[in-house]
Amino acid sequence: MKNWKSATPKPASIEVHIEELVLHGFAPGDRHRIGEAVQHELKGLLDLHGVPPALAKNRNIDSLDCGSFKLKPSPSGKTTGHQIARALHRGLNG
Description:
3 helices, globular
């Protein structure tokens, strides 16, 4: 007799659209690197932790204040994007 594990339900599929991300103090040329890093890290956080309660309750969030965070001098776009994604994720879970 084989042991069968119960099927784990696949999490609901969601699509996140960030219409505008306001960042002060960054070079305009960094926006694509930062944006790509935000997208990648936020996807990873959502895959790992599931849909935050704020998105489960309200599918349209007009604005989200995620507070602030400190960066080391001259951070890479990737580092900046990852920190922004983590702040967004905290804001959604807040």
